[in-house]
Specification:
Blueprint: H1 5-19, H2 25-44, H3 53-71, H4 75-95, H5 101-104, H6 107-127, H7 134-154, H8 157-179, H9 185-202
Helix pairs in contact: 1-2, 1-9, 2-3, 2-9, 3-4, 4-7, 6-7, 6-8, 7-8, 8-9
Length: about 220
């Protein structure tokens, strides 16, 4: 079943993005979370017999992001759910820490970018008299930036792509919502968002992908990591 899930995720994601109308809202929200339910199931089926700690943390992150999808109509509540999801991703990525100086250096462009976009959003919120959102937005930008950086520190290509796409998706959403309109913002946000979540789910290694304990090198992870 696992091999058919990516096609199902793609079909349901495109259906939501391009064909489901804005009203009624309940139907819109339902179809919004269906791709996330499928991604959750896809992540779960990576290791059905014995889940690793990394898989458990990613599943929790996916679950809270799915809650955020449904609750984002109440912005701060939805934002909080996403923030919790990112914290689970951070812990998951730290669990797979794979140090290199090159990956460590990624903190510099990520820090510069998050500082710049955070400043622009705060200035816009101040001008619009929405100062109550400044603290939640700053907290979220900080956490998602850390998530993006820790994704780099795993050395996992899927985690890195997923983390970067998540940052891009939320950047488009934030800029469109708080600073100025972006053409085709809706499709761009959701395409990058679903793809980010799929790649993060794909970063879970199935049990059979690990080398045997007899032949493995000592610096390679085991299924018990």
């Amino acid at each position: 079943m696992n091999k058919w899930l990516p096609a199902g995720i793609l079909i349901m994601g495109l259906l939501y993005i391009f064909f489901i109308p804005e009203e009624p809202l309940a139907i819109k929200i339902l179809f919004k979370i269906i791709p996330m339910i499928l991604i959750l199931f896809y992540a779960y089926t990576k290791n059905m017999d014995r889940m690793t700690r990394y898989q458990q943390l990613v599943l929790l992150g996916l679950f809270f992001c799915m809650l955020g999808d449904g609750l984002l109509i109440w912005f701060v509540i939805g934002l909080t759910a996403f923030l919790i999801g990112h914290i689970f991703y951070i812990v998951a990525f730290l669990n797979q820490w794979n140090f290199s100086w090159l990956r460590m250096a990624s903190i510099l462009p990520i820090g510069v970018y998050s500082t710049w976009i955070g400043r622009e959003i705060v200035l816009s919120l101040t001008e619009k008299g929405e100062s109550s959102l400044i603290i939640p937005v700053i907290c979220y930008i900080t956490v998602i930036s850390i998530m993006g950086w820790t994704a780099f520190m795993t050395g996992k290509a899927a985690a890195i792509i997923g983390g970067l796409l998540f940052v891009i998706s939320d950047s488009i959403l934030s800029w469109n919502k708080f600073v100025e309109d972006i053409t085709f913002a809706g499709p761009l946000i959701m395409l990058t968002y679903y793809t980010a979540q799929f790649f993060i789910a794909s970063s879970i290694r199935p049990k059979y992908a690990y080398p045997s304990l007899i032949n493995r090198k000592y610096d390679e992870p085991t299924i018990y990591d």
